[in-house]
Amino acid sequence: MSSLIYSLVIAIVALVPVTVNQFVEDSESASPTMFLEQTDQEFFYDVSPRYMQTRTKTEMEQARSMAEFDSPEKIARIVSYKSVIVSTFDDNYEPIIEVAGETSEFNEAQLKLLQSVDYSDDVLIRTEYLIKKNGKVEDGYTTPHITIVPEKQAEYAGGNKALVEYLKSNSIEQITIVKKDKLKPGKVRFTISEDGTISKAILVSTSGYPSIDKHMTKLITEAPGKWEAATDGNGNQVEEQLVFSFGIVGC
Length: 251
Description:
six-stranded mixed β-sheet; five-stranded antiparallel β-sheet; 6 helices; 15 strands; 20% helix; 36% strand; globular
C-alpha cells in the first residue's frame, strides 16, 4: 500500500470522536499531518509498509542485479563496484542474514537469499562503488531499504485517507501534551490477517510519550470498518504486516 504525503494546517474546533461514517465522508481532504499551534510542531500519521520502496515476492525472485534497484542514470555513471551486500534485518535493524558480493550481478548465494524472502520481510542492499561525478571519479554508495509486499496489498474499507482521518480525529486530545523537540518517530507494527482482521499490534518505536504510544496502539487495533485481505500471485489470501507511524517522520 503506497501513501501520498500532503501538508495541511488545520484548526481544531472540537474534541469530538469521529465514527467510521463521518471520516469516510471527509477522507478526500484528509492530511497525514496535524499542526500543533502551541508547539510549532507537526504531528505525522501514516499507515503503510515499513519502507516506501517495496517489491513483491515475484519481483524479488526475478531480480538478477543492482540495475533493478537503482536509477538507470546512476547505474550508467558507476565505473566499478567495490562491494554489494544483501541482507535481511529485524525491527532493531540487526542483520538476520547477510551475503556479500563484489559485482553488480548478484551471486548464487545472494540470489538464493532474495528468492527466499517472505511477505513483510525487510531487505537492505548496500553497494559501494566508484562513480563519475562532475568530471571526476569519486567514492559512492547506495542503501535501498525494501519491504516485501503481497502481489495485491491489504486495503482498508474507505481507503487509507479515511483511516488516517480516523486516527487523527480520535487522538486530538492525547497529543496536546507534545512539546517541541521531544517528539520522536513512533511506530506500531500490526498484521492484517487472512480474514481481514487486525492482530499482533506491537509498539516497535516510541514517540517519546508512553501515553500517546498506548493510545495509538489501541486506536489502530480498534479501528472501525473492515480490511480487504492481501493476496499472493495466485489469488490466495495471505497475511500482511503494516506499520502505523506517528509523531515525527523517521526510522
